[in-house]
Structures are given as C-alpha cells and as structure tokens.
Amino acid sequence: MTCAFVTTLDMNVLAGFCTAAGCRDPAVDCTDPGTGATPICTNLALNGAPGLACALDCGESGMSGCPDGMTCYDNIVGQPALCFHPV
Fold it and tell me: Which residue among 43, 64, 72, 74 sits deepest, i.e. has the most Cβ atoms within 10 Å of its Cβ?
C-alpha cells in the first residue's frame, strides 16, 4: 500500500489517495469501483523512488466517474486525469 498526494508549489497538500503498489496489470492488480473511472497503472513516487501503482483515470468519465468523495484532477503535470480525495 502506498499513498499519493497533490501539493501546491509551496508543498501544501490539496488531495490524495492510497492504493496498491507494484501494479503490473490493472485488470488484476487494481480494484474497479464500477463508477466509470478506469483503473490504470501509473508512475508515482513510491518510498522516494519511481514505481507503478494503481490509480483511477477519470479523463474519459470526468467528475462523474470518480467514487463518492473523490474529485477528478486533470491538471497534474505528468499524469493523466486521476481521482483524488480532497483534503
């Protein structure tokens, strides 16, 4: 398990999510909440090093694809649109 965070330039946390680390195949390794967002493997910093982890891509479904309580962030540099829990 690992957690990812969205921060401002001055490192204030805006949002985050926790997920399974070591993603190789999203169909096998990731949970599909059935809300319209697509489970994917994406590059994240895992314990200070790059690695693949499960995430929910909301690029196609937008806000309605994220599970309850999550928001679609589509402006993260180097990432597709992903579902996060706002802080």
Answer: 72
